Amino acid sequence: MRYLPLLILLAPAALARPFDSGFSLRAGGFWADVDSSFGARTVIGDTPIRVDFESDLALDESKFSPFVELTYRFDEKNVLALNYLTLHRTAQSRSLNKSFEFEWEGSQYRVESGANLKTKLDVDIYQLVYGRTLIQGDSYALLSTLGIHVMDVYASLDGDVTLIGEAGNEMEFADRALADVTAPLPDIGLVFGWQPMERWLVTLHAQYLKLAIDDVDGRLLDWRLQALWYLTPSLALGLAWQNYELEVKEKRRFSDIDVQFDYEGPSVMLHYEF
Predict the structure, then answer these.
(1) Which pLDDT score, from 0 to 100, does residue 17 have?
(2) How far apart are CA 10 and CA 18, in angstroms?
(3) 54: which DSSP letter?
(4) Residue 54 CB: number of other CB atoms within 10 A?
(5) Burial of residue 60 (number of CB atoms within 10 Å: 0-12, 13-18, 19+)
(6) Is the pLDDT of residue 220 over 60?
């Protein structure tokens, strides 16, 4: 998706001309401290709760994952970028310390305290972004951006899972509960680039949107600080820090679309222009 600015706003004057039309490719990896959860309810009391994939279901709280971005610069004013990141995790949790019920893909499930579960959570995020230069000086530039995220979430619980029948008291051993949620969410943002010295480029990228459509609420907050150092006119090394928060949920009390995904951490990358 995203761990990279939309384009090289300014590059070292002696090395490259960043506003020339053409393509750039960026690839790298990020170390994410992740907080992900889903909506459920208690078995006794029917109280809404959140089940945490990390603390309750033993998924890793930090993991290295890849990302890639392809950018096309039409001219010094307009740019289009397509990016993708992926974060896939699997864990085995034993002797779960809480009982809860939840709804995935239209079916009701129950997990009892002490259950043994194999949990899988795969998150893939795609983003298409258009950017346009608002202000440009000798050593800086400011762009506005308009984009759309598509967040694809696949979650499964394998093991001691019980399927609840329509009557509410009919139970059968299900062995697996799974959900596949695709959530599109538009966003707006700004990108500021500054060239403090030759061979160096620093960018700050921020995106935000809160949106309610029909029965679905969505919220996105994303900011990234990045520094690039040019080895050659076409090749650069980069280091960034990013904070990313995305939440999509239905307005019903107990929802089968109730996803919260937050991460923050550093990333490293290679940037190549052609």
Answers:
(1) 41
(2) 6
(3) T
(4) 19
(5) middle
(6) yes
CB 186 within 8 A of CB 248: no
**Average pLDDT across the chain, whole number:** 80
Task: Domain ranges for the chain, please list them.
Answer: 22-273
What pLDDT does 229 receive? Answer: 92
Coil/strand/helix, residue 136: strand
For residue 172, the model assigns a pLDDT of: 67
Q: What is the pLDDT of residue 167?
A: 58
Domain 22-273 indexed as CATH 2.40.128.90:
yes
The model scores a pTM over 0.85: no
Bridge partners (DSSP) of residue 55 are none
Per-residue burial over 197-217, b if 16 or more Cβ lie within 10 Å, else e, is eebbbbbebbbebeeeeeeee
Cβ-contact 19, 10 below 8 angstroms:
no
Give the pLDDT of residue 8: 34
Q: What percentage of residues in the chain have a pLDDT greater than 90?
A: 22
Q: Taking a C-beta distance cutoff of 8 angstroms, is the pair 38, 258 a contact?
A: yes
> CA-CA distances (angstroms) from residue 213 to 123, 179, 184, 186, 254?
23, 21, 11, 12, 18
What count of Cα atoms within 13 Å lies in the side-chain half-sphere of residue 168? Answer: 2
